[in-house]
Amino acid sequence: MVGAIRSELRKFFTTRMWWGMAIGIFVGGALFAAFFAYAFTSDLAGQSGGPGGMPTGDAEQIANSVYTAGLSIGYLLLLTIGVLQIGSEYRHKTITGTFLATPRRVRAMLAKVVALLVIGAVYGLVSLAGSVSVGAVVLGLRDVDAFPSTQIVRTLALSLLVLGLWALIGLGIGILIPNQVAALLIGIGVAWIVEPLASVLLGFWDWGAQHVVQFMPTQATNAIVNAVQDGSGTARLDWWGGALTLTAYAVVLAGIGIWRTSRADIA
Amino acid sequence: MTTATTTRAGLIEVTGLTKRFGTFTAVDDLSFTVEPGRITGFLGPNGAGKTTTLRMLLGLIRPTSGTATIGGHPYVDLPHPLSSVGAALEATNFHPGRSGRDHLLVLADTADVPASRVDELLELTGIPAAARKRAGGYSMGMRQRLGLAAALLADPEVLVLDEPANGLDPEGIRWLRGFLRHLSGQGKTILVSSHLLREVEQTVDDVVIIANGRLVRSGPMAGLRGTPGALVQTSDPAALAGALRVADVTSTVAEDGSLVADTTDLRLVGDVALRAGLPVYGLAPRTADLEALFFELTEGTNRNLGAGAAGSPAVPLERDAMTGEEGANE
Ligand SMILES: Nc1ncnc2c1ncn2[C@@H]1O[C@H](COP(=O)(O)OP(=O)(O)OP(=O)(O)O)[C@@H](O)[C@H]1O
Ligand SMILES: [Mg+2]
């Protein structure tokens, strides 16, 4: 099992994709942090409860938001990585070699799961390196406390988990939709277009706004890192509720995928 | 099956193996064994079911029924699969963006094989220079060699190679032959598929021939070649046959009027003819035309060619023309 995990990590770090992704995540983290650090502190200067749907939050939420702003790019990249970790194996038929080396397929797939969690954590660190360094400087320049509480540490640690979980969601999607281009378009389309639209539509329906929207993957992600809210008055889960919700998505999607893979003919 | 109870490490046993894709039966109740220390050719025309059979043997395709075991165990139950069985299935199983060496390292990780062994195999298969370049730029022959290196990585007892000669140049094919001979000399079990009997005839000890998913013939290569003899053309075959019988050589007259003597001693046949005062127009060792034989074995069962193709294909074809296509069906 250890060998299989090592093998999965080597698969990832022996193609060019990994450092392209690393640069993207670092730069994304830095840019988003700079932008939000600037934007939120401007709002704060003139805010009084956030009328007109202005983002609202205390100093801790602002710091959280700034440091995890890059996650909105990061989780899509990890989703992509998750899809490709299995999709490229089908596309290039390397899955044959993978299952010859580890014929117990569930074990082979669990090795992928562990490897993706590790990869998620590594990229989480890369993202934080970009966002915390830049974000803290901008907040400091704006005379806002860059580290208002120790809760920030929990947020930073959780953002590593968030990326790992999104990678697992990608793994599940990558298995269920064997064409990796289609899988990517659908995965990103759902996260960026379908889910926000559904949230807005459900927002018109009170029960939906209070009981459904908070369980959507992106909303759950925001709950985990305790970002500022958009002031639309929808309910939000606690950080642990968000973590459990996102984990549930990852477990269900990856689980169905692994089950499918363990039975399929590899031709 | 006499070997059914033995569990010799390198013995491959296929028993009643069947695979249906929907209503199409790709492999049909196939049974054969592959012996350690010998090279076995797994032969059949395109679409005969070779790859499907090998993939079932390797646990990649789930059989509809039947079993395939290696040393008495299904592939998925092997505790150290790569050090038991090395397989090279298709020459395209590489990520184009990963170098050949990294491909081997990815496999080496799972089998606890050190990087030094990877480099050793790259030397052995003759691609050390290309190994650090991305596999997307490899030629067919380089891919085959990389596939072979991957199969040999953990020094397995059993080798399963699907069309390993595809894309190799004549020099490469000769190298492959020598290489396989060397490995079987070490006692390894080698199963190598091909759709050309001639391609492997100098390499293999045994053959398993399939067509339309069914077993057509299995056994030693020597049995397929038939007994060697001498082919002689003369003016009076019956007279020469009599003269040869005096010299203790049996013979038969073939359809085309030439004589087939059951001896490999061409000088003897020539001398006998000279003493009998018979002219010799042609004298040659008789070798089985393996290509024709293979065609007969695999295509002879094809309903479109009609019955009796095993004798002389020309005759039933004429009959086809007279009776119409359906009339020749069995
Ligand atoms: N996944 C599949 N679904 C449906 N039919 C299949 C599948 N895989 C193989 N077949 C069919 O099964 C038959 C046997 O295919 P197979 O690839 O085993 O032949 P082969 O002997 O390896 O041929 P070749 O010499 O061309 O490699 C073919 O008719 C093929 O079309
Ligand atoms: Mg084939």
UniProtKB/TrEMBL annotation, chain A:
The keyword Transmembrane applies. Keywords: Membrane, Transmembrane, Transmembrane helix. The keyword Transmembrane helix applies. It comes from the Bacteria. The chain crosses the membrane at residues 21-41, 61-84, 113-140, 152-177, 184-205, 239-259. PANTHER family: INTEGRAL MEMBRANE PROTEIN-RELATED, MEMBRANE PROTEIN. This is ABC transporter permease subunit. The lineage of its organism: Bacteria, Bacillati, Actinomycetota, Actinomycetes, Micrococcales.
From TrEMBL, chain B:
Residues 12-237 form the ABC transporter domain. PANTHER family: ABC TRANSPORTER, ATP-BINDING PROTEIN. Residues 305-330 are annotated as: Disordered. InterPro entries: AAA+_ATPase, ABC_transporter-like_ATP-bd, P-loop_NTPase. One of its GO terms (molecular function) is ATP hydrolysis activity. This is ATP-binding cassette domain-containing protein. Belongs to the ABC transporter superfamily.
